């Protein structure tokens, strides 16, 4: 065993790293003083709802490709082979379902926060529960995801630990607080390019040193690192086609379907069509990123073989192996190590800035605005910027806490992954099951979180006690941001040993991490439906139109109308909104609450009587919408909860239309 090897950066490497920070800060300053100058909450939090498909797609990819993933994926392939590549099979449905199910629902409701949907579908209690759960998830996550790569970098290169942490944290806070979501998205685009360049440079130079890509493939085949299709259905097996290709779909849905950081990007798109297209564009980009991670792992194996730097004692953990490999390959090429570090911290910046912005949005939209509906626009915008700044400083505090957590750091990663599944289950419960009520939603979420923490923490404690029945099952690090590419971050590479299959509770603790999201979301749905049926399911007329995706109505089209009404299967999805060329920030200036006009935001469409239809045929669209709201509120048959939800949506209308209504 050798001693820990520490390599060092040159001046050129530091210059490249500083240029990354300066460029990122510059983008934030540009958007702080251009366009609407971030004077409204719509511009600051939602980028004016004016973003095109390409930047949104690359921003989605950058949020997905964290620094932890850049370090973890190649180490995973180096240690276990290319079985991990079958994860790409889950990307298809993992992006197709959000594109055609979640995006139409969220976009047509014209929301700012994903959790605003929960109040429209259930009630304010469910919304607050979802919001608080998300805030807890992100606060735990953002400090750790900044500290972990900096710690690995410091261990391998001697790069100043806290200098890197504070530089990244402060620059990220600066451009997020000043430039808003536009700055976050466009810096993500820049950082995505840097990430591609850094990884590509490592693959090209490393493959050349190994004798060419054909030699890399030959050594990988001889070393049994090229995996075939493993169709073993055992859910305890860490990676098989089913765990990666099927279990991965639920992980992708938790990330791309209901996570606020991603939903916010969909809602910032100019049109629903562009939001949908962003999912299609990010699909091939994800495949490229996955292939690059696998190639890096194979190049590492071609150079080191079975004598890994970890086995030789040159590094202390798996997440340091990639950095050691990069410094080893680039040791005679000044500047390229700096390029990879820029690549690494671009991943950190993109992920953390998404966390800041999404946290500021949900805090403002879900916790503050409902209590201060008449807050002036300038004050609301200033408060939103203050929230982004506060969360940035909190990130640095969490990074310090992470530094003293020791082995608990691993559990902090796991806690983030545990929460994604239950939140996915909560949204699926509301969106696909019309008869689910608010009591069932809260109970289901509580049951899902309890199940997630029980299995997750129990598994962690069992491994720490040394009684893990099968080391290669490795559920050490649950997917960060429900990001399956980070599973190898803290994994311990060990040889396969023949041990008996775990039974009872141990079997539950040994469940592959790829099934965690599916298991926990299913718990929420099952418990939520049972409680809803026991406490009185919701009826068709009690539902807010546009909050339920008509999947059951489509599947049960053959049933008579009266049966489909009893199953709440006849409510259609809200129609698409009329496109407008008016700059969003100009429209938002006219609305004290920073919301778009009621022409775009109106989602309540009640059944009108024949006389109503005859009366309104010759009226213009604005008058018909006001009349619709009047019917919804004054109809004596409307339930109190329905009137409350209708009133909630009416608050999103412009002041002039409210005056007309009165």
From TrEMBL:
The keyword Membrane applies. One of its GO terms (cellular component) is apical plasma membrane. GO terms for molecular function: monoatomic ion transmembrane transporter activity; symporter activity; vitamin transmembrane transporter activity. It is found in: Apical cell membrane. It is a multi-pass membrane protein. Its main location: membrane. One of its GO terms (biological process) is pantothenate transmembrane transport. Pfam families: SSF (PF00474). It catalyses: biotin(out) + 2 Na(+)(out) = biotin(in) + 2 Na(+)(in); (R)-lipoate(out) + 2 Na(+)(out) = (R)-lipoate(in) + 2 Na(+)(in); iodide(out) + 2 Na(+)(out) = iodide(in) + 2 Na(+)(in); (R)-pantothenate(out) + 2 Na(+)(out) = (R)-pantothenate(in) + 2 Na(+)(in). InterPro entries: Na/Glc_symporter_sf (IPR038377), Na/solute_symporter (IPR001734), Na/solute_symporter_CS (IPR018212), Sodium:Solute_Symporter_SSF (IPR051163). Keywords: Biotin, Cell membrane, Glycoprotein, Ion transport, Membrane, Sodium, Sodium transport, Symport, Transmembrane, Transmembrane helix, Transport. The chain crosses the membrane at residues 14-33, 53-72, 84-107, 128-149, 161-181, 193-211, 239-258, 279-304, 339-362, 382-402, 408-432, 439-462, 513-534. It comes from the Eukaryota. Gene3D superfamilies: Sodium/glucose cotransporter. Sodium-dependent multivitamin transporter that mediates the electrogenic transport of pantothenate, biotin, lipoate and iodide. Functions as a Na(+)-coupled substrate symporter where the stoichiometry of Na(+):substrate is 2:1, creating an electrochemical Na(+) gradient used as driving force for substrate uptake. Required for biotin and pantothenate uptake in the intestine across the brush border membrane. Plays a role in the maintenance of intestinal mucosa integrity, by providing the gut mucosa with biotin. PANTHER family: SODIUM-COUPLED MONOCARBOXYLATE TRANSPORTER, SODIUM-DEPENDENT MULTIVITAMIN TRANSPORTER. NCBIfam families: sss. Belongs to the sodium:solute symporter (SSF) (TC 2.A.21) family. Interacts with PDZD11. This is Sodium-dependent multivitamin transporter. It comes from Austrofundulus limnaeus.
């Amino acid at each position: 065993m050798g001693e820990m090897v520490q390599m060092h950066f040159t001046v050129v490497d530091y210059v490249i790293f500083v240029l990354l920070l300066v460029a990122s800060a510059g983008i934030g300053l540009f958007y702080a003083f251009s366009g609407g100058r971030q004077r409204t909450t719509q511009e600051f939090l939602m980028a004016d709802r004016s973003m095109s498909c390409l930047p949104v797609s690359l921003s989605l990819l950058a949020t997905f490709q964290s620094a932890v993933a850049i370090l973890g994926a190649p180490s995973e392939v180096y240690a276990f082979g290319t079985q991990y590549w079958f994860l790409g099979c889950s990307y298809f449905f993992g992006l197709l379902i959000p594109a055609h199910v979640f995006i139409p629902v969220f976009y047509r409701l014209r929301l700012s926060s994903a959790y605003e949907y929960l109040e429209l579908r259930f009630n304010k209690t469910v919304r607050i529960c979802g919001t608080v759960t998300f805030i807890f998830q992100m606060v735990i996550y953002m400090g750790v995801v900044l500290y972990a790569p900096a710690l690995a970098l410091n261990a391998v290169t001697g790069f100043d630990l806290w200098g890197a942490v504070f530089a990244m944290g402060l620059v990220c806070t600066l451009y997020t607080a000043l430039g808003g979501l536009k700055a976050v998205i466009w810096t993500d685009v820049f950082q995505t390019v840097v990430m591609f360049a850094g990884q590509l440079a490592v693959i090209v130079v490393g493959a050349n040193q190994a004798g060419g890509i054909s030699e890399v493939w030959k050594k990988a085949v001889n070393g049994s690192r090229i995996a075939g299709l493993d169709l073993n259905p055992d859910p305890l097996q860490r990676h098989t086609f089913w765990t990666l290709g099927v279990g991965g779909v639920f992980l992708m849905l938790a990330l791309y379907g209901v996570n606020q950081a991603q939903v916010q990007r969909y809602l910032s798109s100019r049109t629903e069509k562009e939001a949908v297209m962003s999912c299609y564009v990010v699909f091939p980009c994800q495949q490229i990123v996955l292939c690059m991670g696998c190639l890096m792992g194979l190049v590492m194996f071609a150079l080191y073989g079975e004598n890994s730097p970890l086995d030789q004692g040159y590094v202390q953990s798996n997440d340091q192996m990639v950095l050691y490999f990069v410094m080893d390959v680039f040791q005679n090429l000044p500047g390229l190590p700096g390029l990879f570090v820029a690549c690494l911290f671009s991943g950190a910046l993109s992920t953390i800035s998404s966390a800041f912005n999404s946290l500021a949005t949900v805090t403002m939209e879900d916790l503050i605005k409902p209590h201060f509906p008449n807050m002036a626009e300038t004050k609301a915008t200033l408060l939103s910027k203050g929230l982004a700044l506060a969360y940035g400083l909190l990130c640095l505090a969490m990074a310090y806490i992470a530094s003293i957590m020791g082995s608990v750091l691993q559990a902090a990663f796991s806690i983030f992954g545990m929460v994604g599944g239950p939140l996915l289950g909560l949204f699926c419960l509301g969106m696909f099951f019309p008869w689910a009520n608010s009591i069932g939603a809260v109970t289901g979420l509580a049951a899902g979180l309890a199940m997630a923490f029980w299995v997750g923490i129990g598994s962690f404690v069992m491994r720490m006690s040394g009684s893990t029945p099968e080391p290669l099952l490795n559920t050490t690090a649950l997917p960060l941001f429900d990001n399956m590419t980070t599973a190898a971050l803290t994994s311990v590479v060990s040889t396969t040993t023949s041990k008996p299959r775990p039974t009872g509770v141990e079997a539950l603790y040994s469940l592959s991490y790829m099934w965690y999201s599916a298991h926990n979301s299913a718990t929420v749905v099952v418990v939520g439906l049972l409680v809803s049926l026991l406490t009185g399911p919701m009826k068709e007329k009690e539902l807010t139109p546009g909050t339920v995706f008509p999947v059951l109505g489509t599947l049960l089209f053959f049933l008579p109308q009266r049966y489909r009404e009893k199953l709440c299967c006849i409510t259609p999805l809200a129609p698409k909104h009329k496109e407008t060329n008016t700059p969003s920030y100009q429209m938002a200036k006219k609305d004290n609450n920073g919301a778009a006009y009621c022409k775009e935001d109106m989602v309540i469409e009640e059944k009108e009587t024949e006389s109503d239809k005859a009366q309104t045929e010759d009226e213009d669209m604005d008058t018909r919408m006001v009349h619709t709201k009047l019917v919804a509120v004054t109809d004596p048959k409307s339930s109190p909860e329905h009137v409350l939800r209708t009133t909630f949506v009416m608050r999103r209308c412009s002041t002039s239309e409210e005056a007309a209504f009165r």
